[in-house]
């Protein structure tokens, strides 16, 4: 039983990690000049989470960080998806779509079962007035 829970926790955290990587890749593709702070605000995640995800994406060769001058004195980074990063984004999107379709099917079945319990008009069949 513990192995089942452990495996589902690992799958859940892997799915969440993959979703964050996909969201980061999408955001950077649209806005390569985003700072990590702007990226965190845009995605609604912590700055540390963005930093961790970006480091992993850069280490794996999915994103390249280039220095550029944002103003006369400030140096910033431009995050560019590599061809390998574009392929990874596509693979992550495909896997994410598959997970969401599975979730949708489970929810659809649950909704149908609930409709059967309460009747299609939303009233409880078993309730007495």
Taken in chain order, the helices and strands follow as HHHEEH
Share of β-strand residues? 5-15%
**What's the tally of helices?**
4
Q: How are the strands ordered across the major sheet? A: 1-2
Q: Considering the protein shown, what is the CATH homologous superfamily? A: Winged helix-like DNA-binding domain superfamily/Winged helix DNA-binding domain
Residue share in helix? 55-70%
Distance between the termini: 44 Å
Indicate the CATH architecture.
Orthogonal Bundle
On the 0 to 100 scale, the average pLDDT is: 84
| Count of individual domains | 1
**Got a strand count?**
2
CATH third-level topology: Arc Repressor Mutant, subunit A
List low-confidence stretches. Answer: 1-12
Radius of gyration: 21 Å
Largest sheet: 2 strands, antiparallel
Silhouette: elongated
SSE diagram, text form:
Elements: H1 2-30, H2 36-43, H3 47-59, E1 63-69, E2 75-81, H4 83-118
Antiparallel strand pairs: 1-2
Helix pairs in contact: 1-3, 1-4, 2-3
Description of the molecule:
With 129 residues, the protein is mainly alpha-helical. It has a single domain, classed as Arc Repressor Mutant, subunit A, CATH 1.10.10. The chain is built from four helices and two strands. Strands 1-2 form a two-stranded antiparallel sheet. A hairpin with a 5-residue loop joins β1 (63-69) and β2 (75-81). α1 packs across α3 (47-59), α1 crosses α4 and α2 (36-43) packs across α3. The chain is elongated and about 65 Å long.
């Amino acid at each position: 039983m513990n192995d089942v829970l452990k495996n589902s926790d690992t799958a859940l955290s892997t799915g969440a990690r993959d979703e964050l990587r996909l969201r980061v890749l999408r955001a950077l593709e649209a806005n390569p000049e985003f700072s990590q702070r702007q990226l965190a605000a845009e995605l609604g995640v912590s700055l540390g989470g963005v930093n961790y995800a970006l480091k992993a994406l850069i280490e794996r060769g999915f994103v390249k960080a280039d220095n550029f001058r944002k103003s006369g004195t400030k140096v910033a980074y431009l995050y560019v998806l590599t061809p390998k990063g574009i392929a990874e984004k596509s693979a992550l999107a495909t896997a994410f779509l598959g997970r969401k379709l599975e979730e949708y099917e489970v929810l659809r079945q649950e909704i149908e079962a609930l409709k059967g319990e309460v009747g299609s008009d939303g009233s409880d069949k078993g309730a007495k007035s």
